[in-house]
Amino acid sequence: MSDRLLDIRDLVVEYPVKGFRHSPFRVLHGVSLDVRPGETVGLVGESGSGKTTLGRAVLGLSPATAGSITYDGREISGLSRRDRRTLAGEIQVVFQDPYTSLNPSLTIEQILTEPLVVRQVKPEEASARVRRLLDQVGLPSDARSRLPREFSGGQRQRIAIARALALEPRLIVCDEPVSALDLSTQARVLDLFREIQDRTGVAYLFVSHDLTVIRHMSHRVAVMRHGEIVEWGDCDQVTARPNHPYTRQLLLAAPVPDPDRQQQRRAERQELQKAGTE
Ligand SMILES: Nc1ncnc2c1ncn2[C@@H]1O[C@H](COP(=O)(O)OP(=O)(O)OP(=O)(O)O)[C@@H](O)[C@H]1O
Description:
- The chain is an alpha/beta fold.
- 39% of the residues lie in helices and 23% in strands.
- The strands form two sheets. A six-stranded mixed sheet has the order 6-7-8-3-9-10, with helices on both faces. A four-stranded antiparallel sheet has the order 2-1-4-5, covered by helices on one side.
């Protein structure tokens, strides 16, 4: 087995701009990174840096203008919709907003069974799997007959995670999966992601603007700015000894519990900004 489950090379993504005089808007300017089986690669950067676009490109939702995306040794960036469907069991997604990502008119059982039905899993087997999935994400089995609106944001995100796990994927693109949740719920859902990884060996491409979250989750981290990766490597190394001034700013902006230290970091950050690095 290749040590690269996902391999992105020199990826360029452009969005069309209305009007024939306008050239397309280039969002990713030749991005390269890889994800190994069972690891978490964090993608961090300010709003608009292109993190979501990169995740969408992996999912086939934003077409690549140039470059390649290889999954398990197979080029996937130009796949047709039909061929994409065969990958659905391998690559899944958890979106940011648990309030809009679940169909409000379906019961939890229907939501979790849908991907299994598409895979022609027999009804009895599907029902047993739904129970197991709920158990895996810490929800009671009587959740099956209820609707999404009967659950809190954190519980809904657990349901979204259960749905992503239904087909036993090897890679999940997590796009800001905790940023709509309050802090204590965030911590519990992050722990759940880690527990699931320890148990199943799934890999995550984990998108967040929050360096504290990325640091908690990632084995390796890519720091994005203006559609480029400005720093990439082992998470401990990047966060302990950042090379790029932008990474240093992100680190200084991340909250710390000690108010004196927080004040000192704010001053350091202002110094960096004055030096013209922002
Ligand atoms: N469908 C689209 N059509 C045109 N431009 C888009 C589209 N989607 C995103 N963009 C633009 O691409 C750039 C990158 O957006 P993207 O959502 O990938 O960034 P991001 O880092 O995920 O930001 P955020 O953290 O705010 O979600 C932004 O300037 C955005 O306006």
